[in-house]
Design a protein that fits this description.
This protein is mainly alpha-helical and 182 residues long. The protein is built from eight helices and five strands; from the N terminus they run αβαβαααβαββαα. Strands 1-2-3 form a three-stranded parallel sheet, with helices on both faces. It has a two-stranded antiparallel sheet with strand order 4-5. α1 packs parallel to α2.
């Protein structure tokens, strides 16, 4: 967090949060820990150590969700750029923030190397490169990277039905909690 633009996110403030995180998660002994973030490239090198600590103290499975699909502009502005409102779903992929793909690809490679399960939010929002930005008469995004309630409902449903998620949840139901020593 030494390069974060948010002045509230500094190493001095974030390290104590991380140090408290492991004891809390250890006490709760979850079967599954899900990381979902917008992911900055600077944070990626710390993921492996965090996963190692989680596994060491809980034995939990870990799922990493990739960064959100982001539009370069607010979807309401994109609507002004198309002839037919439903065309926004076809042009949204071309109007995405392409730099997020590098972060998503790096995160996917890191997740495979650790290894942990990974689901791309790009695939959740834009299956086969067609994005679901306009849902009937409502937008799924409130701005360039935040989902509306309608978007959360659709994308959340896609997430919980994703084969990786289903496998993790169903295998977790049959799994005995790990015995963790002090």
């Amino acid at each position: 967090y030494t390069t974060h633009t948010n002045t509230n996110l500094t190493p001095t403030k974030c390290r104590p949060v991380h140090e408290r995180f492991i004891p809390v998660i250890r006490k709760r002994a979850p079967n599954l820990v899900i990381f979902s973030d917008q992911w900055r490239a600077e944070a990626l090198p710390y993921l492996e150590q965090t996963v190692v600590e989680i596994r060491q103290h809980t034995g939990a499975s870990v799922l990493v969700l990739g960064p959100n699909f982001e539009l370069r502009r607010d979807p309401r502005i994109l609507l002004r750029d198309v002839q037919n409102p439903s065309d926004i779903n076809n042009v949204a992929w071309a109007r995405r923030k392409k730099d997020r793909e590098k972060v998503a690809e790096s995160l996917r490679r890191i997740s495979e190397a650790i290894p942990v399960d990974y689901i791309s939010k790009f695939d959740i929002v834009c299956p086969q490169g067609r994005c679901d930005i306009l849902l009937q008469d409502q937008l799924s995004y409130s701005d360039g990277n935040h989902w509306t309630v309608k978007g959360m409902e659709l994308f959340g449903q896609r997430l919980v039905n994703h084969p990786v998620f289903v496998e993790l949840v169903t295998s977790g139901e049959n799994r005995q909690p790990p015995v963790v020593g002090d």
